[in-house]
Amino acid sequence: MRLTTKGRFAVTAMIDVALYGHRGPVTLAAIADRQKISLSYLEQLFGKLRRSGLVDSVRGPGGGYNLGRAPELVAVSDIIVAVDEPIDATQCGGRENCLEDRRCMTHELWAGLNSHIFNYLRSITLAELVRQQGARNREVAVLHDHRRAAATADRPQVAGQPNESTTTA
């Protein structure tokens, strides 16, 4: 079972709206630019997200999209289902006809996997994904600061000139 780009892009775009929506409606062009997703593909996805009530559209100048619900109330499974992404590891699509019109011997195994995947996606909220992005951005900033300090500490100190890592601001 594989999650296709449809589901991945829909989740990514929803995270983007949640991250940038506090400034006002988020345009699809802005999402396309930041996330490197085709604008026409986003238009298709956001039509489905809007019909599912996950986003609200704002028309006119300054228009775009806002979240339709609080991010704490949007599960990843809601997003996946809204864009018609199948979550199915069975060969038969759940129809139990994978082996000459009857259920194969591993059908229950794959159906159980489907259930676990769906339950996992239902347990993760958009708010959690936004928090992860914030934590990730803070970690990167700290990492860059640490590397910069280490690089200047390794530079030889010229007599009479302070080393950048030992100066105080």
Topology:
Elements (H helix, E strand, L loop, with lengths): L4 H16 L7 H8 L3 H13 L3 E4 L5 E4 L8 H7 L24 H17 L2 H28 L16
Antiparallel strand pairs: 1-2
What does this structure look like?
With 169 residues, the chain is mainly alpha-helical. The protein has a domain at 5-86 and 124-152: Arc Repressor Mutant, subunit A (Orthogonal Bundle). The protein contains six helices and two strands, in the order H-H-H-E-E-H-H-H. The protein has helices at 5-20, 28-35, 39-51, 76-82, 107-123, 126-153, and strands at residues 55-58, 64-67. Strands 1-2 form a two-stranded antiparallel ribbon. Helix 1 crosses helix 3 (39-51) and helix 1 packs across helix 6.
Keywords, please?
169 residues; Arc Repressor Mutant, subunit A; two-stranded antiparallel ribbon; 5% strand; 2 strands; mainly alpha
Separation, N- and C-terminal Cα atoms: 55 Å
CATH architecture of the domain at 5-86 and 124-152: Orthogonal Bundle
- Which H/E pattern describes the elements? HHHEEHHH
CATH fold title of the domain at 5-86 and 124-152: Arc Repressor Mutant, subunit A
Secondary-structure content class:
mainly alpha
Question: What is the number of helical segments per DSSP (H or I, 4+ residues)?
Answer: 6
Task: Count every beta strand, where a strand is a DSSP E run of 2 or more residues.
Answer: 2
Q: Which CATH C-level class of the domain at 5-86 and 124-152 is it?
A: Mainly Alpha
Write down the overall mean pLDDT: 83
Shape: elongated
Strand order of the largest sheet: 1-2
Strand content: under 5%
Helicity range of the residues?
Answer: 40-55%
Q: What would CATH call the homologous superfamily of the domain at 5-86 and 124-152?
A: Winged helix-like DNA-binding domain superfamily/Winged helix DNA-binding domain
Low-confidence parts lasting 5 or more residues at pLDDT below 50? 140-147, 165-169
The description of the largest β-sheet is: 2 strands, antiparallel
- Cα Rg: 23 Å
